[in-house]
Design brief:
DNA-binding, WH-like_DNA-bd_sf, alpha/beta, 7% strand, transcription, Homeodomain-like_sf, 5 strands, globular
Length: 313
């Protein structure tokens, strides 16, 4: 499929039908996709995530009645979650229920109140971070990840776009790539991002980091890079968002539920940083002969800055 056809019809990355998600990834996919679903589909998705054992015992008609929707809505929800049909979703629900019964995680609410003791804040945030990492790992498409690693390892140049909290993640990735001798730039200024994207060509890589997938200052430079032939990668929490139209490879992150004291900009960064680390380690593996000496040299160049000065007599 050509890039033009992909852009016109919005086909998923890689082409063809992906394998259904593993049972462990079901809850993560519900959290990721629910915001973009219709309200009736959200009811179905929330029901299967909240009670996988109970829903696994229901027919498509039974689940439709339970959620106050239609059989067609149940089937559409199953397909949006990545399963060919409702039968495949029921099998995944049964598998997820079995996993939960064998070792259920402790019930800790992530809602943080203004008057929570600091010890409770630590426990809730730690649980929140752990769940985000587990959900991101479970839902990450390793085929897409490997393709992105291959492109990065052979790139002449890599540009990374991100603003706000995602801009910090973009800077983290470029710093890592620079440490192993690769040419990389992070762009948080939208004007510089676009003017640099114009210079990209086949053999270069452009990466957009945006949880919402609809941040114009990030989508626009990725579009320009895409149109100029660069290999494009989107790191996003919304796999059906505008940024994916211009991405050859989509790496989906998960995020914890938002709260008043912890907005998405904070919780999404955890999943993004995991993806960045996976990209970096994968590239370092592919380029080990050059990456290892470069990393060693960068450590040596900075070593004197980390030594405590000696006190005088």
């Amino acid at each position: 499929m050509t890039r033009e056809v992909k852009e016109t019809f919005g086909s998923g990355p890689g082409g063809g039908a992906p394998a259904p998600p593993a049972p462990a990834a079901l809850t993560a996919r519900v959290r990721t996709l629910a915001p973009s679903m219709t309200r009736s589909m959200q009811r179905v998705a929330e029901a299967v995530a909240d009670d996988p054992a109970g829903c696994a015992a229901l027919t498509v008609t039974g689940l439709a009645e339970l959620t106050g929707t239609s059989e067609a809505t149940v089937v559409r929800t199953a397909r949006l979650l990545g399963y060919p049909g409702y039968r495949d979703l029921r099998l995944a629900l049964a598998g997820l229920a079995a996993q939960q019964q064998s070792g259920r995680a402790p019930a800790i609410t992530t809602d943080i109140a203004v008057d929570d003791p600091i010890a409770d804040v630590v426990a809730k945030l730690a649980h929140d971070e752990q769940q985000t990492l587990a959900d991101t790992a479970a839902g990450l498409d390793t085929v897409q990840l490997a393709a992105a690693v291959t492109a990065l390892a052979g790139a002449r140049r890599t540009d990374v776009y991100g603003v706000g909290a995602s801009g910090l993640v973009a800077q983290d990735l470029t710093q890592k790539l620079l440490r192993i001798g690769l040419l990389a730039h992070a762009h948080s200024d939208p004007h510089l991002a676009v003017t640099n994207a114009v210079q990209l060509r086949p053999g270069d890589v452009a990466i957009a980091v945006t949880h919402s997938g609809s941040t114009g200052d990030v989508v626009e430079p990725l579009r320009v890079a895409f149109e100029h032939g660069a290999t494009t990668v989107a790191v996003t929490g919304r796999p059906d968002s505008p940024v994916t139209q211009y991405a050859d490879h989509v790496l989906t992150t998960s995020t914890a539920r938002e709260s008043e004291l912890r907005p998405a900009a904070m919780s999404s960064r955890t999943g993004q940083l995991l993806v960045v680390d996976c990209l970096f380690v994968g590239v370092a593996q592919r380029t080990y002969e050059s990456a290892a000496p470069a990393l060693s040299a960068s450590y040596e160049a900075l070593a004197h800055r980390h030594r405590m000065p000696r006190k005088g007599p």
